[in-house]
Structures are given as structure tokens and as C-alpha cells.
Amino acid sequence: MALSCHRQTGACRPAARSSRRAAPRPSTAVVAATASAVPASKLIDGKGIAETIRSEIAKEVAVMKQQHGLTPGLAVVLVGSRKDSETYVRSKKKACAEVGFDSYGSDLPADVSEEEVLKVVEAYNADPRVHGILVQLPLPKHISEKRILDAISIEKDVDGFHPLNIGSLAMRGRDPLFVPCTPKGCIELLERCKVPISGRKACVIGRSNIVGMPAALLLQRRDATVTMVHSKTPDGQRICAEADIVIAACGVAEMVTGDWIKPGAVVIDVGINAKDDPTAKKGYRLVGDVEFESAAAKASLITPVPGGVGPMTIAMLLQNTLESARRAVTGEKVAGH
Length: 337
Ligand code: GUN
Description:
Strand content: 5-15%
Mean pLDDT: 91
CATH topology of the largest domain: Rossmann fold
Function: Catalyzes the oxidation of 5,10-methylenetetrahydrofolate to 5,10-methenyltetrahydrofolate and then the hydrolysis of 5,10-methenyltetrahydrofolate to 10-formyltetrahydrofolate.
Domain Tetrahydrofolate dehydrogenase/cyclohydrolase catalytic: 44-159
CATH architecture of the largest domain: 3-Layer(aba) Sandwich
Largest sheet: 5 strands, parallel
Pfam families: THF_DHG_CYH, THF_DHG_CYH_C
Oligomer: single chain
Distance between the termini: 11 Å
CATH class of the largest domain: Alpha Beta
Protein name: Methenyltetrahydrofolate cyclohydrolase
Domain Tetrahydrofolate dehydrogenase/cyclohydrolase NAD(P)-binding: 180-327
Bound molecules: guanine
């Protein structure tokens, strides 16, 4: 079942470990820590953890090819030419190649009709080489996201966005076939860092279908007491400041400052925003939804941006696709879900 994202061992903070080597090549986490004066021991090294997961996946893919002659396949549908979406799709295809997956791509023009997109999805639904289908969001306004997501076979819904998968995630006693990748990555980081979730207070900031809502459901399934804070919540800061675990996914650069963080809390920052910075080579730098320095001063553990949640999203997509391919190997019946 998808929720048993197999708990792999893996260091929470490889950065701290690498500093004990004779001639350490600093990881991103160490660099970030040096630049921001935040101790490396506080940083959750998502980049390192995602690398560990990807190498585990690559090993399993090699065995699957050799023993069963099966190569996991991911189909990625991109509509239009949004620069951010193009970048994400490129990274996803590159990650597929690196672990030995086949990837299939359909790049459709921004003015493609909804019916054409549906035809593409149907073709991938019927293609046995394809174990996972991902339609990059957002879609152009004239295309119904609802219709497209509903059309993806739930057995290939590696994004976990199909209402049947989300519905199963929300219900006690049911297990979705797939869990959305970014929230799954957040939980994986908490688990690998051995952060207790059961019985803890968690605050999720943001209520999007892609991150906030499924993140809250995943925390609740692990017996956290979850509060969701969103744009209409009066005094979100006060609520957040009571939480042991904070997942920030509001899409507002550096909104969550240190005043929002309870001393010792664990902070997972999902945001990725460009902030003007004349001192940076590109004229901007990436920041999260959390103001890193002030929040890190209060937190016991915190994800950096970049190098925190971002790499985990792709690792979880690969994990979901591999899980789907495993089901193809074992012939596991998933119908009836
Ligand atoms: N757009 C932003 N995040 C995601 C994601 O996780 N999956 C898809 N399909 N689109 C996205």
C-alpha cells in the first residue's frame, strides 16, 4: 500500500557526518549553514536524503529489469510553455533516466483542446509500458483540471491527485494507491529524522490540493493533532506558535518568521520563491515560505531552501512509479479501490 513508503534507513543529517571525514567536500547543507550561521546539526538535508532514495531505487530497477525484463515507465504531459513547469518536467525526466526508468513525454501547445489532452491521457492509460502518468499543473485556464485528473487511471496516478486516491487518504481504514509526492516527501523527511509525529501538535500553513490538504491528512493518519492555517485564519501566527511540527506551504515568500515558531519545533519549508538579490549572480535568490534565519534560531530542525523538500518531491515521484511497476510485476489486483 502506498502509505507504507518503505521506511528506509538514511541519515537525517549527512552534512554533520561528512564534516568528520578527512577532507570533506561540503554538501549543500554545510554550505548553507556556513553562509547563514545556522549549525549544520539543525539542517534537514533533503538533497542528501533524496540522493540515498534515488540510489536505492536505481538498484531495485536494475534487479527488476534483470529478473522480470520490466522497466518502470513514467509519462509526463506538459501543456503550454510556462518556464517553471518546463523546468520541473525536465528535472523529472532527467531523474527517470538516472534511475533507469523509461520516460515518455507529450509537450502540447498552450492552445491545445481539452479533448486532445484527454486523448493523450487515455493513450497512456492503455499503454502497458507506462506505469505512471503525470500531467504537470497548472493547466491553461480553458482546460478543466478536474476533467483531466479524473481521466488518469488510478492505477497510474503517481501524483496521487485522483479524487479516489485523495478520498482514500482522507478515510480511516482505507489506503490510497498513491500519496501526493511533495507531502509524502515532507513525512519521509520527518520519519528519517526520527521526529515523533504521534500525539504531537502539527500546523500546516496553506490548504492547496497539491500540498497543504494532503500533508494535513498524512500527519493526521500518523496520529498528530493537526491545525490548518490559511489566508482566512485569524491569528495564524498564534496557532502556529503552539505546534511541534510546522509544514509551511502558503506560497508567500518568508511569511513564516521566527515569531511563528515554538522553541524546539521542527520546520518543513515547502515554499520556493525567487527574491530579488542584487548581490546574487542571477539577480535573485531562492527563498522559502519561512524566513530561514529567524525560524532556524527557534527550531530544533529545519529544511533549507533550496536543498530541503524540493529534491524529495522527485524522489517520491520515482518511488510511486516504482511501486506501480512492482504491482505490474506481481500482478497485484488493485481494481476495486
Ligand atoms: N505542479 C506543482 N507541483 C506539482 C506536482 O507535484 N505534480 C504536478 N503534476 N504538477 C505540479
